[in-house]
Task: inverse folding
């Protein structure tokens, strides 16, 4: 019995350490990325100029949906990379989050506008339905369905690690 | 001057406490207070919605008020939150196949410890 006990005392902690090591090291998702697939919730919000209403039917095909605001410092850091993507023909829809319309327009004039269309989500209702916790966040959308969600600044590394593999595997066309 | 400041401060506290969440009845208010203690703030690593005043928590609380008024059940509301902010947004993990080890693990550990303790050969 004492032999069994000695072996158990050794085996139990070692196997627990082994279990946690395997569980924690098999996490293959990039930190901040989520690949849960869900539909873009129904919404009807105005565009940033306040001239038109935008709803689900105005968003077709494959595109990036970028949550940004003029008060968000990281968005400013992210901005040049979005402009680069946009210059390469990638379709980016902006979701202006809890922002003053005039501040957002001034910001775009100052830094350039990489967005094909901008939704003005002043109260953050669409953002809440999408599971946004702050800005910047970026969604990869395939025919009305979110296929990747990244919380934080998108840059070349994130693009290569998070978005590009999904774009390739699903054969998406963001142009 | 000091007196005016005090009046303004007391009035502003009263106004803000009164206008935030309004319910049709006391049962709904109680449900709301329980729910925000059982749901984690999505932005903070630990801390319930009730303890958080992060903008996202405020939005989520308003959404919960709206859902309660729409007659949604507690499980509907928890489902809404966990669909968007992950399973970890609920303090009590669900009782599913993946979480059996969480619920039964400590119990199994205690049972094994007791078995070893009572059946060991006394030396």
Result:
């Amino acid at each position: 019995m004492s032999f069994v006990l000695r072996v158990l005392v050794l085996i139990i902690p070692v196997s627990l350490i082994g279990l946690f090591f395997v569980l924690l090291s098999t996490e293959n998702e990039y930190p901040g990325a989520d690949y849960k697939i869900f539909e873009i919730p129904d919404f009807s919000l105005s565009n940033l100029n306040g001239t038109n209403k935008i709803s689900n039917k105005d968003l077709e095909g494959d595109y990036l949906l970028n949550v940004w605001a003029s008060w968000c410092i990281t968005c400013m850091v992210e901005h040049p990379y979005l402009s680069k993507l946009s210059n390469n023909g990638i379709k980016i829809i902006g979701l202006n989050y809890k922002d003053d319309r005039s501040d957002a327009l001034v910001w775009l004039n100052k830094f350039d506008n990489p967005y094909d269309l901008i939704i003005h989500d002043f109260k953050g209702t669409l953002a809440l339905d999408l599971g946004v916790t702050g800005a910047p966040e970026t969604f990869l959308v395939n025919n009305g369905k979110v296929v990747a969600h990244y919380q934080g600044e998108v840059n070349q590394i994130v693009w290569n690690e998070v978005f590009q593999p999904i774009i390739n595997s699903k054969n998406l066309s963001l142009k | 001057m000091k007196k005016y400041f005090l009046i303004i401060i007391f009035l502003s506290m009263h106004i803000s406490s009164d206008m935030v969440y309004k319910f049709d009845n006391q049962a709904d208010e109680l449900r709301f207070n329980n729910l925000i203690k059982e749901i984690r703030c999505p932005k903070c690593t630990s801390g319930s919605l009730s303890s958080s005043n992060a903008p996202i928590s405020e939005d989520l609380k308003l959404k919960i008020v709206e859902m309660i008024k729409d007659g949604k059940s507690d499980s509907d509301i928890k489902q809404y939150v966990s669909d968007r902010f992950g399973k970890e947004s609920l303090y009590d993990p669900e009782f599913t196949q993946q979480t059996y080890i969480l619920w039964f693990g400590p119990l199994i550990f205690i049972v094994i410890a007791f078995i070893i303790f009572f059946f060991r050969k006394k030396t």
Chain B touches chain A through 16 residues (CB under 8 Å). The first helix of chain B runs from residue 2 to 19. Chain B has two domains: 23-92, 95-123.
